């Protein structure tokens, strides 16, 4: 998605250990116009799979996932990292190792929000090693529902997540694919292929 690549090139910042900081438009300050375009793009990519819910993980996935859910006309379910006091029902839970925080967290979703009739589109801001996406897949499986696709805003193609998810048969659509972040330079996959 051209606008996204331009935004990453202009405002993304490489920080240590292959991590891209996108705090100016995606996960701290958020660009609503870009999020709307991202939502439209995910909806165009996935509407044929007829999702009934979009699932993401708090907090950085919420902005793009909300716009995708809006465009698809379905509810957004946000997997929580901490159980709020108001979550009184039974929960689905899965363990997720965080690439950026280097720690294992539980993700939880209230059982009444997903059931076996659901067709779930998983959306996240980044794909690195695939652990966040696999945690969400696990929650969907516990509900007996189907994963109809995985939409990623920025895939770091030099890490294993994309290969792992695709080898398990999931349709993964990434709006930007990054080939490398070495030497502080952002290189897009398309650039390297051409
Ligand atoms: P994975 O679970 O695929 O290893 O990592 C994906 C999760 O880690 C995403 O939900 C995202 O929040 C975070 N993440 C992974 N790599 C990056 C990165 O380069 N920059 C930022 N800002 N977050 C990342």
From TrEMBL:
<dbReference type="InterPro" id="IPR000836">
    <property type="entry name" value="PRTase_dom"/>
</dbReference>
<dbReference type="GO" id="GO:0000310">
    <property type="term" value="F:xanthine phosphoribosyltransferase activity"/>
</dbReference>
<feature type="binding site">
    <location>
        <position position="156"/>
    </location>
    <ligand>
        <name>xanthine</name>
    </ligand>
</feature>
<keyword id="KW-0963">Cytoplasm</keyword>
<feature type="domain" description="Phosphoribosyltransferase">
    <location>
        <begin position="33"/>
        <end position="157"/>
    </location>
</feature>
<keyword id="KW-0808">Transferase</keyword>
<dbReference type="InterPro" id="IPR029057">
    <property type="entry name" value="PRTase-like"/>
</dbReference>
<feature type="binding site">
    <location>
        <begin position="128"/>
        <end position="132"/>
    </location>
    <ligand>
        <name>5-phospho-alpha-D-ribose 1-diphosphate</name>
    </ligand>
</feature>
<feature type="binding site">
    <location>
        <position position="27"/>
    </location>
    <ligand>
        <name>xanthine</name>
    </ligand>
</feature>
<comment type="function">
    <text>Converts the preformed base xanthine, a product of nucleic acid breakdown, to xanthosine 5'-monophosphate (XMP), so it can be reused for RNA or DNA synthesis.</text>
</comment>
<comment type="similarity">
    <text>Belongs to the purine/pyrimidine phosphoribosyltransferase family. Xpt subfamily.</text>
</comment>
<dbReference type="InterPro" id="IPR010079">
    <property type="entry name" value="Xanthine_PRibTrfase"/>
</dbReference>
<keyword id="KW-0328">Glycosyltransferase</keyword>
<dbReference type="Pfam" id="PF00156">
    <property type="entry name" value="Pribosyltran"/>
</dbReference>
<keyword id="KW-0660">Purine salvage</keyword>
<comment type="pathway">
    <text>Purine metabolism; XMP biosynthesis via salvage pathway; XMP from xanthine: step 1/1.</text>
</comment>
<dbReference type="InterPro" id="IPR050118">
    <property type="entry name" value="Pur/Pyrimidine_PRTase"/>
</dbReference>
<protein>
    <recommendedName>
        <fullName>Xanthine phosphoribosyltransferase</fullName>
        <ecNumber>2.4.2.22</ecNumber>
    </recommendedName>
</protein>
<comment type="subunit">
    <text>Homodimer.</text>
</comment>
<feature type="binding site">
    <location>
        <position position="20"/>
    </location>
    <ligand>
        <name>xanthine</name>
    </ligand>
</feature>
């Amino acid at each position: 998605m051209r606008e996204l690549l331009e935004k990453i090139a202009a405002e993304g910042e490489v920080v240590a250990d292959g991590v891209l900081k996108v705090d100016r438009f995606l996960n701290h300050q958020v660009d609503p116009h870009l999020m709307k375009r991202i939502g439209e793009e995910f909806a165009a990519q996935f509407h044929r799979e007829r999702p009934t819910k979009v699932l993401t993980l708090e907090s950085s996935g919420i902005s793009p996932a909300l716009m995708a859910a809006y465009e698809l006309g379905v509810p957004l379910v946000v997997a929580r990292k901490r159980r709020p006091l108001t979550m009184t029902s039974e929960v689905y839970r899965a363990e997720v190792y965080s690439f950026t925080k280097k720690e294992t967290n539980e993700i939880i979703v209230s059982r009444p929000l997903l059931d076996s009739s659901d067709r779930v589109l998983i959306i996240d801001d980044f794909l690195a090693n695939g652990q966040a996406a696999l945690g969400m897949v696990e929650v969907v499986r516990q509900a007996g529902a189907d994963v109809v696709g995985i939409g990623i805003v920025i895939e770091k193609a030099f890490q294993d997540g994309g290969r792992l998810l695709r080898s398990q048969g999931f349709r993964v659509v990434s709006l930007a694919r990054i080939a490398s972040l070495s030497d502080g330079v952002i290189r897009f996959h398309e650039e390297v292929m051409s």
